């Protein structure tokens, strides 16, 4: 896997000012800007929307904002070199009441679903499935409420996936891979095959970090969302993949579970718990190593993140890479390979090191860096990165999705497009 340099590394232009981004104002508080860009590829039959909301902070203005959140200025030695980590901007909302946060996020979520459906050429009444990854849902019925607000039918299958930064890739994997099922009760991929489905990640990380004292988290994370429209088995076909979990014993990235989970670890049993809110509403909840003091997030530092994600991540990607080429050999397509890899944008240094380690294993796939104007947006990042590459892809192209996140969870899959 080869790592590309950050796109427009020295371009600190806000996402809101970029070509094709439509900015509106949500009338909450003093007004919250929401920017959304839609993308489609008619040859593939895949489209979607991505965006961010809140004030856009570049690296020069961010320390003052973080100092205000902390109640004390950042020291010079506490200001991260975010440009070297591949991030030039991120989006934050002001401190709001719980009700205002809820109203804001319901509006953002509904708009994202509507825009993704519209980009796909669908009316929201045609959507038959919605799968969304999110780290810190503001309400347990968030997906049901934004789906209703967007005009999606009540009998559409709704699946919420809480696997931190791996949430949207976990959702996509469930939509495509029939070997995965929801606790034996329903096979989501079989249920959704041939149907019009929205899959994505919606992450209000500014709200998550607003009550945190973790100085790194406050600088790295921001709001973001990305949702794609696809027809599983037709416009996107599953080839091979692997879902892996490995508990974060050392608590290198601790995250509070803002969603129902027993909190129990049972030897030999998955850390994922499946809950059926109704026959059409499923929650896949992943166990997290939670901060003991009740904080929303606690990071061990950048080297801790490398230790947490790189070694196991390289193993999972290598396994899927070899499985993919074995499949191509069996299908008589030995010369076929990946056009690119869409990897979670944890930070550029993590992805660069991962790419170097993969090259030692003989794994070489272009892995462009595409989110310098967002920061780390957790489950939204792979969807945004994919949409930013969508128009360059052709029918029949194979790509690798590489999701990973706190917990620790990994979803890596090879897919065929169009």
Architecture overview:
The model has no long low-confidence stretch (mean pLDDT 94). By secondary structure, the chain is of the alpha/beta class. It has 10 helices and 19 strands. It has helices at 62-70, 98-119, 142-150, 167-176, 188-192, 205-210, 215-220, 302-330, 348-360, 381-389, and strands spanning 2-3, 22-26, 32-41, 46-53, 55-58, 89-92, 129-133, 157-162, 197-203, 224-230, 236-245, 253-255, 272-278, 281-286, 297-299, 340-343, 366-367, 398-405, 409-417. Helix content is 28%, strand content 26%.
Number of beta-strand segments:
19
Identify the CATH class.
Answer: Alpha Beta
Helical stretch count?
Answer: 10
Largest sheet: number of strands, sense, barrel closure? 9 strands, mixed
How would you name the CATH homologous superfamily?
Thiolase/Chalcone synthase
Given as residue ranges, the uncertain stretches (5+ residues, pLDDT < 50) are none
- Largest sheet strand order: 2-3-4-10-9-7-8-14-13
Write down the domain tally.
Answer: 1
Beta percentage is 25-35%
Overall geometry comes to globular
Distance between the termini: 23 Å
Compressed to H and E, one letter per element, the order equals EEEEEHEHEHEHHEHHEEEEEEHEHEHEE
Overall average pLDDT: 94
Compose a concise summary of this entry.
The protein is of the alpha/beta class.
Per-chain topology:
Elements: E1 2-3, E2 22-26, E3 32-41, E4 46-53, E5 55-58, H1 62-70, E6 89-92, H2 98-119, E7 129-133, H3 142-150, E8 157-162, H4 167-176, H5 188-192, E9 197-203, H6 205-210, H7 215-220, E10 224-230, E11 236-245, E12 253-255, E13 272-278, E14 281-286, E15 297-299, H8 302-330, E16 340-343, H9 348-360, E17 366-367, H10 381-389, E18 398-405, E19 409-417
Parallel strand pairs: 1-17, 7-8, 7-9, 8-14, 16-18
Antiparallel strand pairs: 2-3, 3-4, 4-10, 5-6, 9-10, 11-19, 12-15, 13-14, 18-19
Helix pairs in contact: 2-3, 8-9
């Amino acid at each position: 896997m080869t790592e590309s340099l950050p796109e427009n590394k020295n371009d600190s232009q806000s996402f809101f000012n970029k070509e094709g981004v439509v900015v509106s104002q949500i009338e909450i508080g003093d007004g919250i800007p929401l920017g959304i860009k839609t993308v489609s590829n008619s040859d593939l039959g895949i489209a979607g929307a991505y965006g961010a909301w809140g004030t856009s902070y570049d690296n020069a203005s961010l320390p003052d904002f973080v100092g205000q959140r902390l109640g004390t200025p950042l020291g010079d030695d506490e200001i991260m070199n975010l440009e070297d980590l591949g991030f030039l901007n991120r989006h934050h909302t002001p401190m709001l009441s719980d009700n205002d946060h809820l109203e804001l996020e319901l509006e953002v979520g509904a708009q994202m679903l509507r825009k993704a459906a519209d980009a796909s050429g669908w009316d929201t009444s045609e959507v038959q499935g919605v799968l969304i990854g999110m780290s810190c849902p503001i309400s347990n019925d968030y997906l049901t409420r934004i789906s209703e607000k967007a005009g999606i039918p009540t009998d559409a299958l709704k699946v919420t996936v809480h696997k931190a930064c791996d949430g949207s890739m976990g959702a996509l994997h469930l939509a495509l891979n029939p070997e995965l099922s929801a606790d034996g009760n329903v096979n989501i991929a079989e249920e959704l095959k041939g149907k019009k489905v929205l899959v994505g990640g919606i992450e209000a990380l500014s709200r998550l970090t607003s009550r945190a004292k973790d100085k790194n988290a406050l600088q790295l994370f921001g709001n973001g969302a990305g949702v794609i429209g696809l027809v599983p088995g037709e416009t996107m076909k599953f080839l091979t993949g692997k879902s892996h979990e490995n508990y974060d014993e050392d608590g290198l990235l601790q995250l509070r579970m803002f969603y129902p989970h027993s909190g129990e670890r049972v030897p030999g049993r998955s850390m994922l718990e499946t809950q059926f809110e109704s026959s059409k509403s499923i929650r896949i909840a992943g166990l997290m190593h939670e901060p003991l003091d009740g904080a929303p997030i606690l990071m061990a530092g950048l080297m801790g993140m490398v230790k947490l994600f790189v070694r196991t991540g390289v193993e999972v990607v290598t396994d899927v890479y070899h499985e993919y080429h074995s499949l191509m050999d069996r299908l008589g397509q030995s010369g076929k390979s990946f056009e690119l890899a869409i990897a979670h944008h944890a930070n550029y240094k993590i992805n660069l090191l991962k790419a170097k380690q993969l090259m030692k294993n003989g794994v070489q796939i272009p892995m462009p860096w595409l989110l310098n104007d967002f920061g780390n947006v957790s489950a939204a990042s792979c969807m945004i990165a994919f949409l930013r590459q969508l128009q360059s892809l052709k029918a029949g192209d194979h790509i690798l999705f590489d999701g990973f996140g706190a917990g620790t969870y990994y979803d890596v899959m090879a897919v065929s497009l169009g």
